[in-house]
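Deliverable D5.2: sample structural annotation.
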Amino acid sequence: METIINYIYQLITSNFNTIIHILIALGIVILFFVIGPFLTRYIIKLFKIQNDKIKTSSFYKPLKYFFAFLGIYLALLFLDLPTSITGMIHTVFRIGVIILFTIAFNNALKYSSNFMKKIFGKTSIGNNEHILKIISTILRTLLFCLTVLMITHELGYNISGLIAGLGLGGLTVALAAQDTAKNIFGGMVIFLDKPFQIGEWIETANYEGIVEEITFRTTRIRTWDDSVATIPNSMIADASLINWSKMSKRRIKMNLEVELSTNLKQLSNFINDVKILLENHKDVLTESIHVNFSEIADSGYKIEINCNTPLTSYYNYLNVKESINYKIVQLLAQHKISTAYPSTSVYIKK
């Protein structure tokens, strides 16, 4: 009888202790669920984040989930479970922490995040969405690779062999993707050096037109015949190009040849009137005007006319040039001067 009473007592005591342990474990979980948000806010405040921006921080949700996860982890350890189960709990906890912090840093490294704006906001990169996207993509890819390696290590695999395999595979991929890599780096050069931007008129050895789009790999130009030329960035970065949109003025240059029968007074008066014409033209820069009797040729007198216009648009430039041409033709008629044309004199000996 005494043996039975002792057994019942031990059973009740044992179950009572188990219940107490479970209740304490639940208390730990509840405690961390309650204090987790407060601890999260306190930690984020240490980084001088304003109160109204705490919940939108890249680290807010991952940190809050971390404290909840930590509470569950500590509660399970308190239950004094078998060693095999405890070892599994340790592994799951470490992998969970890696995943949570990967999510946090992945959010922080997005090109539109406050974190990236804070780092690059005071630099020229901060104003260039394209280069921010490239940097963000590279950093997030490296973060993903690092996460995979860490999780693989936690699962008990030998990452040295995996890294060696990835090295050989990476070498193969790198050799196969040399052109792609060149184009991506060429795109980075374009974004950083800024030889041109979208909407500008550029000219290369083979293409001329308006830049419509700049991507990681290519630059698209709308040519004057309304076709779209897609050029690899590596070619653009290595090529010499002219950015016509950077002009502050355009040069107007004309060579006029008048007949040899023109007398010097006519020639001098005509040159002076051309200078007056250009000086009074509203779209010509006065300091750039040069009108000179430049050469005596076989068929006539050559007059060189040079000036600049502040109108850099090609169509406006053509209109200015046309208006000057009309007035020069009027001056030629006014001074009774004819333009020369190539001629050959033939003498016949009798």
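Annotation notes: The chain has three domains: 2-168, 187-246, 250-334. The CA atoms of residues 48 and 54 lie 10 Å apart.
The annotation will be released with the project's public dataset once the embargo ends.
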